[in-house]
Amino acid sequence: MSARRKARKRALDLLFESDLRGTNPLELLSSRPTPDLAEAEYVAVLINGVSEYKEKIDEFINTYAEGWDMDRMPAVDRNLLRVALYEILWQEGLDDQIAANEAVELASELSTKDSAAYINGVLGRIIALKSVLPL
Q1: Distances (CA, A) of 103 to 2, 8, 46, 97, 115
Q2: Which CATH number does the domain 3-132 belong to among 1.10.940.10, 3.40.1190.20, 1.10.150.20, 1.10.540.10?
Q3: Residues 61-119: pLDDT tens digits?
Q4: Which DSSP helix (H) or strand (E) runs through 126?
Q5: What pTM does this model have?
C-alpha cells in the first residue's frame, strides 16, 4: 500500500472519529502522531485542507449528493467525500480520477455495499463541474 493511500486512510480515521465525537480533527492529529514521515506529512495536508475548506466542501456535498442529507449519510461516506473533494478541488498536482478512485476503493472496503457507487456518482458530478464551481 502506498504512503498516500495509507495517509488517506489515516486522515479518514481521524476525520471519522472527530465527526462522531464532535471534536476538532486538528487536535486529534496533534495528539496521535503517525510514525511514517511521508505518510504523516500527507495526513497533515489532508486534515488541514479539509479543516480549512470544510464549510465549502460540505456545501458541495449538500448540493451534489442527491437524495442524501449530510446528517443521514453514513459518517464514513461523508468523510470520504470530504477528503476526496479537498484533493479534487484544492490539492495541486493530483489527478482528479486518482482522488476519486481512492475514495471509491476505500468506500468498497469500509462502508456499505452501495457507498462506492454513490460516492463515485457524487465525485463524478463535481469533477464534471469543477471548472465552473465557485471555490
Answers
A1: 14, 9, 13, 10, 10
A2: 1.10.940.10
A3: 999 988 777 888 999 999 999 999 999 999 999 999 999 999 999 999 999 989 999 99
A4: helix 115-129
A5: 0.94
